[in-house]
Every structure is written in structure tokens, then in C-alpha cells.
């Protein structure tokens, strides 16, 4: 009998997560106490979950041809969300009623980035040479003031990969003294595109919202320069709009180029005459086989190769020359050398399911994902098309939504990293062209995630699709730049009465929630929204696990925020006006990630931070002269990871205090910055040396920066550490 590929129904991991939570509650007598009716209800739920789990795989496949099965799965998922809310309420109320609250898993941070190199690409040598030749040719469109070279081809054929390869070619880099890359996608806002190009040229963000001023700025930066600008994934063919956008590019030197990728020949014709269109063709079967071999990791010298090659080539033929499809199926069979696994993919019924928008090979790859990866992947349907996302931030969202299933020997961080890396290996995610180590989903993958997200995930685009919002929606996002979207978002929140996720990807600076109670729904797990003043009622959102208020002008946070027992992530990045953190921050016993980077007005830390023993990430710590928020509060925070900055070291009185920070125990910190505030020193420079001696970090430290230190010599431990900056 053929071996069954790893996989599982989308809802299987959800059922497992609820069953695990349910078992914990049933085993804890203190939660139910004498509530006999609730106990009976939970036992009945436990039996139901036990009965439903075995039929999920079969139902997931049958739903595409049977509307009754599809409706049953939708109703089941709705009921699972309801059950999860109820169990969360029970466990939270029980936990907050006890004097000591605990958290089970620790979150870490890591980013590993891979870059596209020529050895990863097959069948495009001639295309690469041709595009490079066009880029280096100063006469290819002498009649035009702006030379645009469009690469045209269907989705998933490799347009962006080819553009990225030539963009980083040594000859190309040598010719152009100014280069910039911008992903345009479905939102071709000229202001946004212009601003992005300016930021890429001088490596600084631009907040200017005046299009004319931005165009003048761009003109100044391009005048007298030989530039290469890549406009990746252009969809819209509004000629007037693009002609206005292109005006600053006329001032560059002869030989400057714009390289454009698009699926649409009409779009390409807006920018360049048809003789300059570079059509990208499908890969040959042989080139596809080379791609498949690379991603499946099967060796041509292995004893299984002869048998697997016959099956594999038939699988590749089904991909019809589309590189993304080949890569994804190769990733599916990576390190699987069992003939039965390959036969299962080849003969899967999923190939025959009809949906014009979804590439069959990608649907097959999704079908064989493990259940827990399906839920994590589908969650990313909330992102806008071509959105660049950070690995660690996505893992924090997965964690808040309870999508991670760590085992006893693993942490949430390691589990999240493993999930993410597996999705990258299977080509569901790919590194972006950004140098910041971000990732993107190919638009065909985004279509795939959106298709399987179904009724429970919704991207609001304004009033035009507001009619699609109903009570089954649990996860909602929006990214429009139109002010009217706020009204639509409010209406959507009123309709989606069981909302768990509210994610804002727009460019608004801040929003006043007064008179907008719909935004702070009690059952929210994730809230990422530019709210300029949080009401006291925030403390009633008992389920909240992730709160992101980045770049909002907010002066204080309500003390009631410290009632959020389940809060794991609090992001206050670049909240320039924030002067103090809540005084009882210590009560957030489940807090693992506190990001206060760029909070420049903060003068001191709240008292008793030492109680946050599970804190995994803390941007920096400001030392106070008071004992309860002094240096010794760091003593118990041994789970801190990544980069850590300690400020106001001049407040430390002696080396004994410094030793109480126990910096040597913090083995996960890889970058450390120590800072004395200038102009506030005593005359005792020897004390400073002793204090620095007492702050000896763990030997795992990779980089250290010391600022404002007046000692004449360094302690001995620095000779064993990286050279101080």
C-alpha cells in the first residue's frame, strides 16, 4: 500500500488545539469547581471533537464537489471558534483568580535570509543575457526621453526572479550609479511609488505626502545620474497617471533605464513600444526537471532515482512549464524518497478539481501541507498583495492566534521558526528583494491563501466589498489609503461581531477611538491599529494577546492595560510622545515581547520589571536610582534575546549593584549596548571601571557598544569579547 504523505485537513490542528485546551480545563478541578452543568457541557464537547476528527480529511476533499459537505465544514469551523472563545474565558478567569500566573513557552527571535543567485535558476541563461544586453545598450530606445524595458509573462513564470538576477549582475551594477527597486502590485499609487524610489536612493524613509514636492525631489536626485529603476509587478494601464509619474526620469543621463515586470501586454504598451517588450516563455520540460530535482533534493546517484525519475517527470509535465508550480511540488517532496509518496502526488484527485484562479499544482502542494502549516499559511491571506513581512513579527501573530503547536522539547519560537522555514522551503514564502531581510508571497500564492481562507478571513477594500462582511468573519484587515475606509472598517467591525483580528496596513498616522466602540471588541486576540488614545475599557479585552500601537502620538497608556493577563506582545515602536509606561506593567505576567524602540521621551522603567520572568524581547532598559526600577531588576530576566540596550549607567552606585543585574546569565543576548549619560558623572572614574567589570556579559555575546564610559582602562573580560565600538 502506498505510504501516506504528511498532510492533514485544515481543521485538524484547530480541533487538536481545542481538545488540548479542553483537557487541561477538565483536569483542573479549581476551574469548574461545583459547576456541574458546565462540566457536562465540556464533556459533551470533548466527545464531539473525538468523533469529528477522523472524518475531517475525507470531508476536506469532498467539499469541492458537495455543497452540503462544504456547508458542514463552514458550520463546524464557526462552532470551533465559539468553543475556543468559551474555553479561553474559563481558563482566563480561573488564572486571574489565582495569586500566581504562569506561562508555558518562551519566544525567541531570529532571521535568516537567503538571496537569489544564478545557481538557483534554470533555463533562463539566454533571457538573462538578453535583458542585460538591453540594459547596457545606450541606444535601444533613442527616440524616447525615458527608456523602459518591460518583461511580460504569466503569473509564476519567473519575471521577478529574472529582474532580480539582472539587477544584481556585476556589469549592471557597474554601469548604473543609482539603482532603486519598488514593488507596485495592485495599488499603483504614484505618490507611494515615488516616495519608495526616493527612499531607496538615499536609504531614508520619506513621510512627504505632496506628490509635486516628491516629484521635484526625485527629479533632483536623478538629474545628471545614470539610473536603473525596477518597477516590479505593474498591473494597471492608466496612461495619464503613468505619464505624470515618469516626468522626473527624463532628467537622467543617456543610458538610464526603467525595467518593468507585468503580466499584461497592455500595461507594457503604456510604457514602451512593442518591439521593446521582452516576452518570457514557459520553461522546457528538461529545465523544469532540473528545478524539480533541486527542490526535491533527490540525488541522481541514489538507488531510488531511476524509479522516482519516471514518476517525477510525469508530475513535472502537469506543471506545464510554470517554475513556481515546479518549485512548490519539489518542495513538497523534499527529502521524501518513498515511491508511494511520489505516486500519491501524481495520482491525487486534487489535480482534477476545477477552479480557474488556482494553479492545480499549487492546489496539490497546499493539500499535502500538514494541518498546522495550512492554518499558518492561510492566515497570511490578510496581508495586502506583495506585502513585505518580517519573519519574527509574523511568528508573534501566529503565537497570538494560537496557531503554533510546540512539543515538550521545543519553545514557541523554535516551533514558529520551523513552521516559517518549512513554508519558505516549499516556496509558499520567498525572500523579498529588500535588503532588510523581509519576505513576500507570490501573488499566485496569495490567491491560494485567499481561496482557502474562505468565509473567516476578509480584506476590506472599502464600501465596494463591505457587503461581504458577516458574523462568521473572525480575521479582518484593510490597507486602503482612502479616508472613507475608516467608516467602512467601522461598519465591518459592527457586522463581524465575533472578530478576533483587526490589522491595519494603511498609512494613517492615528485614529481617535472616542465614539468608535466597535474597534475595541472584547473577543479580539490581535489589535494592530494607530489608536491615539486608549480608553480604560481596554482592560476588559481579556482575550487580547497582541497589541501594536506603532508610530502613534500617544502620551500615556491607561493603567487598565495591565489587566490584560493574556497579553504576549506589546509594540510601541516610534511612539515619540510616550513619556511613561503603566506603573503596574509587572502584572502582565504573560508578556514576552516589549518593543519600545524609538520611544525617545521615556525617562524610566516601571517598577518591579523583574516579575516579567518570561520576557523574551526588551528593546532597552533605563536605570533609575530607586531600587524598584534600578539595575538589579534585570537580575531575573535571563530569557532576553537578541539586541539589548542599558541606559543611564551613571545611576549605578557601585559594582555590587552592577553584579545584581547578572548579565553573565543572559546567554541569548547577542548584541549589547552600555551607555552612560554625558554630563552627569561623579569624579570617581574608578567606580565606573568596577561597574563595567560587574556587567560582564555571557560569552555568547557577538557585539558590544560602550558609550560615555570615562574609565582609563577596560576590565579583563573585554579582552575576551568582541572589540568594543
Characterize the structure shown.
The structure is a single chain. The protein has 725 residues and is of the alpha/beta class. The chain folds into 4 domains: 12-96, no CATH class; 124-279, Rossmann fold; 285-447, no CATH class; 619-725. 36% of the residues lie in helices and 11% in strands. The chain is built from 24 helices and 19 strands. Strands 8-9-10-11-12-13-14-15 form an 8-stranded parallel sheet, sandwiched between helices. Helix 11 (239-246) links the parallel strand 3 (227-234) and strand 4. Helix 6 (125-136) packs across helix 7 and helix 19 packs across helix 20 (412-425). Residues 98-110 have low confidence and may be disordered.
* Overall number of structural domains: 4
The beta-strand count equals 19
> In order across it, which strands form the biggest sheet?
8-9-10-11-12-13-14-15
Q: Give the rounded overall mean pLDDT.
A: 85
What fraction, in percent, of the residue positions are helical? 25-40%
Q: How far apart, in Å, are the first and last alpha carbons?
A: 63 Å
Beta-strand percentage? 5-15%
Our count of helices gives 24
Q: Using the alpha-carbon principal axes, give the shape.
A: globular
Largest sheet: 8 strands, parallel
Using the CA coordinates, give the radius of gyration: 28 Å
Low-confidence sequence ranges: 98-110
